[in-house]
Amino acid sequence: MSSEAKLIESMKTNDILTDLGAKLVSGSLTDNALLEETSKGPIVSILPDANVVKIGGQSMIDRGRKAVFPIMDEVVANLESHKMIIGTGAGTRARHAYSVGIDLGLPTGVLSVLGTFVSMQNARMLHYLLARHGIPFIEPIQFPQLPLYLMERKAVIFFGMPPYTFWQQNPAAGRIPPHRTDTGSYLVSEVFGAKSMIYVKDEKGLYTADPKKDRSAKFIPRITVQELRDMDLQDVVVERAVLDLMENAESRRSIQIINGLEKGNLTRALNGEEVGTIITAD
User: Hey, is 282 helix, strand or coil?
Assistant: First the structure.
């Protein structure tokens, strides 16, 4: 018996390892049967009373004062009642950066870096607007302090772009980073087991087509991921990567899209009302 095998046997004998632990130590992490066993235990909801709110870049922040100030006022009005983890989109400036980067022949990972910094700029701007209320801006390295910030100040601002940067995977088509700010915000809600995932856009929610371009587009108040896939829409209101992630989600199996230009919609969504569109994995 090898020294490694003897150590594992000793740990099992002394009840240090569970049966699953022993299999993981001695088994292969490419074994599908073993991987299936790791999904049997319960998942802890780390921040079950927090709401992740993603404020759109192009749809909200790029509109400036007329769109941003009212939604900031609504955030402040809800501080006493709701904890909020607020992510920001990148918007038009990121699209311009992508177009220049693509013209220069830059790869997807580098484009992801460019989009990250635009999302960060938007987060910084919202942070300065909310600074007098003590709401901090945090970067990924500060997420371990997130529970303290929420307990003390009730809200934080972060940039929605996931910190993949150069490690961003290539998309199935083209070179635009597939995991952008919708995805990054969603992953925060999933990992922390948040109460909700609310996307603040400039439309009522999901439509059968882009309502800005097609007046015959029909509003969809509630739909499942599979139903949405079956419709094979050319344009959807959130990044398609979010829908892919929802199918294997443990905690956040629904998202809500609301029109942030309509006063009170964020408050209604935070209160649990089915305003806008609800997309579910089930």
Answer: coil
